[in-house]
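Dear H.,

Thanks for agreeing to be a second pair of eyes. The structure we're designing against is below in token form, covering all 389 positions.
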């Protein structure tokens, strides 16, 4: 969290330069707390760390239980059935990361000619890999992605692009989830009880999608107002008030992005939708190689339900165990063995680990290549930095 916290603090300084009144109010509140002898709470207490460790251990325990319950031999047989198809899965994973990089680059409202495609792609790989570790991982992953940009993009613009890309990615994920669950009600072989659950979930998600679309069109600050409402709680007031300028600035940029840069807005949205569609193709390929007999429509439904599992398991670090268990439940819902669902989850997790490893190796190579440049810059400060740094 150290890198993320430092980035947020720097962003808060830049944003508050354009909001002098908020800056003065923040300083007064800090001085007031200092006079009273109240210290700011630590970002991660020992109890929080302990809970995360326990949750991770329970997740690994659940994964081990599911694996041995399904039978190592049966799982290995399914993995062998995928065979060389896993190379196609790796390729699809790379294409999805490329699409996500394109979406992110289109979200910038400043000149990014100094930001190379290779650096953008590596930053996206690292961010996605860290983001697999739940909500905290997404925060750290976004901070790492911004820090890897170096001096190629101003920090305020990098924060805005991250907020815009993240907002449109969430919106597109909601749309895909609503369409997939709606398809379940029409053609899915599910029981009456599951149809009722699906209808309730659709009602909630459709309401969220409509509210988000209306808010985007009318520029309603839903997130900012919700944050201010949460900040009225005594225990959260100090923490929320420190983050409020960042939330307001990010939401303002997101709401004004469509009007100021409509072409970039739609490009970002389309590339995010492409990311989700490539995930559907990935599910289809894995299931077809295992002989499950799923159509592309069935794979679309599976992916939409997987997004619900990811949302439920967001509090579990890495979604370990819960992701695999949810995939097994989805498989049984469609009348195939739970081992098929477990193998599907393992293949997709292996793809994530592969590209995260590629990103880590590329980052190490980039840092090693930049070390001599940093030494030259210190010895000869008058020399301009290299392009893209």
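And this is the sequence the design step returned. I haven't edited it by hand at all.
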């Amino acid at each position: 969290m150290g890198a993320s916290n430092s980035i947020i603090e720097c962003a808060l300084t830049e944003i508050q330069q354009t909001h002098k009144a908020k800056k003065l109010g923040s300083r007064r509140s800090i001085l007031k707390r200092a006079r009273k002898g109240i210290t700011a709470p630590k970002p991660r207490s020992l109890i929080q760390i302990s809970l995360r460790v326990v949750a991770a251990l329970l997740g690994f325990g659940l994964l081990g239980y599911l694996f041995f319950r399904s039978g190592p031999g049966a799982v290995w047989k399914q993995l062998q059935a995928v065979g060389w198809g896993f190379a196609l899965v790796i390729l699809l994973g790379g294409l999805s990361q490329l699409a996500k990089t394109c979406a992110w680059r289109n979200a910038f409202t400043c000149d990014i000619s100094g930001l190379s495609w290779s650096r953008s792609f590596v930053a996206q790989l690292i961010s996605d890999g860290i983001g697999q570790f739940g909500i905290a991982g997404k925060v750290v992953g976004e901070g790492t992605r911004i820090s890897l940009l170096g001096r190629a993009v101003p920090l305020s613009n990098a924060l805005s692009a991250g907020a815009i890309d993240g907002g449109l990615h969430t919106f597109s994920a909601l749309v895909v989830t609503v369409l997939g669950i709606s398809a379940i009600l029409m053609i899915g072989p599910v029981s009456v009880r599951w149809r009722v659950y699906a209808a309730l979930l659709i009602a909630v998600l459709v309401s969220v999608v409509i509210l988000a679309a209306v808010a985007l069109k009318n520029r309603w600050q839903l997130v900012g107002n919700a944050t201010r409402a949460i900040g009225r709680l005594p225990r959260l007031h100090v923490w929320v008030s420190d983050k409020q300028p960042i939330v307001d600035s990010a939401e303002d940029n997101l709401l004004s992005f469509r009007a100021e840069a409509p072409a970039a807005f739609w490009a970002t949205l389309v590339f995010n939708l492409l990311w989700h569609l490539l995930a559907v193709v990935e599910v289809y390929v894995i299931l077809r190689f295992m002989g499950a007999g799923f159509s592309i429509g069935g794979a679309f439904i599976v992916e939409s339900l997987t997004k619900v599992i990811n949302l439920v398991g967001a509090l579990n670090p890495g979604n370990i165990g819960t992701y695999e268990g949810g995939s097994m439940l989805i498989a049984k819902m469609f009348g195939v063995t739970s081992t098929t669902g477990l193998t599907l989850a393992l293949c997709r997790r292996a793809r994530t680990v592969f590209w995260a490893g590629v990103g880590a190796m590329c980052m190490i190579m980039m840092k090693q290549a930049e070390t001599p440049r940093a030494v030259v810059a210190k010895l000869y400060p008058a020399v301009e930095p290299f392009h893209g740094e």
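Two observations from my side: The radius of gyration is 23 Å. DSSP finds 15 helices and no strands in the chain.

Warmly,
E.
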